[in-house]
């Protein structure tokens, strides 16, 4: 078999594997959607301790199967980050249907994410990290604007790192980076914020 023929054969095998992988991802997504509708709040959706359990388990499985644990971990962190975003959307939809979307004030704040970000920044400047963290989590749960989400992720990541909650910081930052990297035509400001997110992510993973 010539080299081009051998390469074509390998690529056909990869394509077949990809089809099976996508089918399994679809099956996993169905479970995630169901789980998202059952969880009590956004914190339960993010579940950083559960994320780390999954990562530890798949790294061990990678060793058993002869795969690179680092490649498997990176793949799963990206996969989990994307599914968390999906699960949060499902959870918010379920909460809205059951009347659990929150008070009128919360709705107003959800419609004014810039105001919520400013409040969070003010809380952080006053040294009230707990309030700032709560407000930033709410912002990430409700805001769709990429710029706001990146800015919020940077501040929240810094607060979580400073309070020793590195696993949670990593999850927040990885989710933000994944969302931004999937976007098209980032402007200079968003690109700069994405670099800050990546820098913090590198720091927390060292």
TrEMBL record:
<dbReference type="GO" id="GO:0004106">
    <property type="term" value="F:chorismate mutase activity"/>
</dbReference>
<dbReference type="InterPro" id="IPR036979">
    <property type="entry name" value="CM_dom_sf"/>
</dbReference>
<keyword id="KW-0413">Isomerase</keyword>
<dbReference type="InterPro" id="IPR051331">
    <property type="entry name" value="Chorismate_mutase-related"/>
</dbReference>
<dbReference type="InterPro" id="IPR036263">
    <property type="entry name" value="Chorismate_II_sf"/>
</dbReference>
<dbReference type="GO" id="GO:0046417">
    <property type="term" value="P:chorismate metabolic process"/>
</dbReference>
<dbReference type="Pfam" id="PF01817">
    <property type="entry name" value="CM_2"/>
</dbReference>
<protein>
    <submittedName>
        <fullName>Chorismate mutase</fullName>
    </submittedName>
</protein>
<feature type="domain" description="Chorismate mutase">
    <location>
        <begin position="1"/>
        <end position="91"/>
    </location>
</feature>
<dbReference type="InterPro" id="IPR002701">
    <property type="entry name" value="CM_II_prokaryot"/>
</dbReference>
<dbReference type="GO" id="GO:0009697">
    <property type="term" value="P:salicylic acid biosynthetic process"/>
</dbReference>
